[in-house]
Structure formats: structure tokens, C-alpha cells
Write a structure and sequence with these properties.
0% of the residues lie in helices and 52% in strands.
């Protein structure tokens, strides 16, 4: 495959850019800077970026069935945020272990249920980070009525949530274990059964955030590996996209019929200068899956 032509969409100076999602009704990309507690929005047509700040790390963004509301995953709580009034309008969940443990990655399953992971909190109050020494991460689901269920625990960093096109397989990762798992999923009842190793010990960095394409291939950002890897359903590497950043962190498709893949990056990302810690994009050549919103 030829080298992808990657271009910078926004140079926002993020320390730990994460959580990106494309909002089709607003034709915008939302993403976060975990370390600075920021939420960004890039308007695709104009290139204009708006930023809002919060009192906790902002780790992920998901769409909802109300196009004016987003779910924001913060360090110690999950909230509904109004994109018009620019304020929190409801708290859906509070993490009891906060601030020792914080929320991390999150996505919505085919039935509209939110899945999110946790990890030892590595973000100090001043935004600096510290080493992760305890395997305190877990995997949860959160339904619209507030029902929370823990599915797995003992992870170093619970990360990556994606579903196969038919919704019958769920992919999730432990970054510190350098392992992506796959489990049997019931897309009607939002239940996960078992887990098997899907992709493990890849030598290019560690598994961070991912997205799924319409052909059933998983696109996984490799933190510390300067690349994004496209993984086939049988667990083999189909393609490696070399990135101009050391730490690509998560990715999402923009316009499911276009094939544009957008990804974020984390600190120390640019080895030779340039638009440090930014939002990037390239043409993948494949279609993405439509993003399922959280059912309110």
C-alpha cells in the first residue's frame, strides 16, 4: 500500500489528545485533551476550533440520540453536555474510586448502551502525569436508565471499544498488557460473553484507541509506535499506516461514505517540530461504520 498522505486539521497543543468522534449533524469533530481537561470542536467546513474547559480530565466523547447533547466521560463522572448552552445538564454516573481511579476510553454499542473503561488515575491536579503502578482498571457498561455493570477487572489501562459490523463480536484492550481481546456480543441485550486474545505482543507501541470499518477490520492507534495498524478479522496485520507522531491515541471515521480517518495524538508527539500534539486526517480507502449514539 502507498504511504498515506496525512495532514493536520488542528494544532491545539494537546498534552494528551483523545476521545475523538465525528458529529454528522454538526459536521464537526469533537475531541479532548485529557491532561488539561479540555473539550475541542472543529467545524469541518470552516476549520474553526472552539474549546471548553472542565474541572476534571475529559477522556472521551460520544454522541446521543438527542443531536444537541453529548455524553462526556470525565475523570470521575459521566455527564450530559449541551452543545448549545455549553454546560452540563445531567450527571449519569459517578465513579466511586475517583480520584484514585479515573475513567478512560468509551464507545456506544449497537443497542445504544455506553461502554467505558477505567484505570489508575495518572493525571495530577496540575495536569502533569505520573507512572501507572497498579492494575486497577475495569470494563463497564452504562444504560440510559442508569444501570451500571462491571464486566471485567484487573486491567492496567482499559482501552479500545469496537464492534464487528454484525454486532456479534466486541473488541476491547488492555494497553499495559499490549493485548486486544475479542468477546462474543449480543447486540440486542448488550451482553458480553467471554474473551479471547485477538491481537497481542505487536512490537510497534501499545494499543490505544480504535475504530471499526465497514469491512470488519479494526484500526488501532499504537501509542509509542508512530503508527496506526489495520487488523483483519483473523488477527493478522493488513496494513500499517506510518504517522508523523510518536503517540497516535485514538481514531474515528469522518463521513461514513468518504473513508476519511481522523486521529488524535499525545505529548512528545512531534520528533522534528511541526504542529505539535494535533488532530490529523488521511484517506483510508475504506468506509467506516455509522456511529451509534447513546440512547437517552
Amino acid at each position: 500500500m502507498p504511504t498515506a498522505e496525512i495532514h493536520c486539521l488542528a494544532a491545539t497543543g494537546d498534552i494528551c489528545g483523545e476521545g475523538c468522534v465525528w458529529h454528522p449533524q454538526q459536521n464537526a469533530v469533537f475531541w479532548t485533551d485529557i491532561s488539561r481537561g479540555l473539550l475541542h470542536r472543529l467545524q469541518i467546513e470552516s476549520g474553526h476550533v472552539e474549546t471548553w474547559s472542565f474541572d476534571q480530565p475529559v477522556t472521551a466523547v460520544v454522541l446521543t440520540s438527542n443531536t444537541e447533547l453529548l455524553v462526556l466521560i470525565l475523570g470521575g463522572r459521566i455527564v450530559l453536555w449541551d452543545t448549545r448552552a455549553h454546560r452540563e445538564v445531567d450527571v449519569l454516573f459517578r465513579l466511586p474510586e475517583w480520584p484514585g481511579v479515573r475513567c478512560n476510553d468509551a464507545r456506544v454499542d449497537p443497542a445504544g448502551v455506553l461502554w467505558f473503561g477505567t484505570m489508575q488515575n495518572n493525571v495530577r491536579s496540575d495536569g502533569t502525569t505520573m507512572e501507572i503502578t497498579e492494575w486497577r482498571g475495569a470494563l463497564y457498561s452504562l444504560a440510559a436508565k442508569g444501570e451500571v455493570k462491571q464486566w471485567h477487572c484487573g486491567f492496567g489501562i482499559s482501552n479500545t471499544f469496537a464492534w464487528s459490523p454484525n454486532g456479534e463480536a466486541m473488541y476491547f484492550a488492555d494497553t499495559l498488557a499490549n493485548t486486544i481481546y475479542r468477546g462474543h456480543f449480543n447486540p440486542i441485550h448488550s451482553s458480553l460473553e467471554g474473551r479471547e486474545v485477538f491481537f497481542q505482543h505487536f512490537q510497534r507501541g501499545l494499543p490505544d484507541g480504535s475504530t471499526m470499518d465497514a469491512e470488519g477490520y479494526l484500526w488501532n492507534c499504537r501509542y509509542g509506535g508512530s503508527c496506526i495498524v489495520r487488523i483483519a478479522p483473523d488477527g493478522t496485520v493488513e496494513r500499517i499506516i506510518e504517522t508523523p507522531v510518536i503517540n497516535p491515541t485514538t481514531c474515528t471515521f469522518v463521513a461514513d461514505n468518504e473513508g476519511t480517518l481522523v486521529f488524535t495524538s499525545a505529548g512528545n508527539a512531534m520528533p522534528h517540530g511541526g504542529p505539535a500534539e494535533s488532530l490529523f486526517a488521511f484517506e483510508s480507502g475504506v468506509h467506516g461504520l455509522p456511529v451509534t449514539p447513546f440512547s437517552l
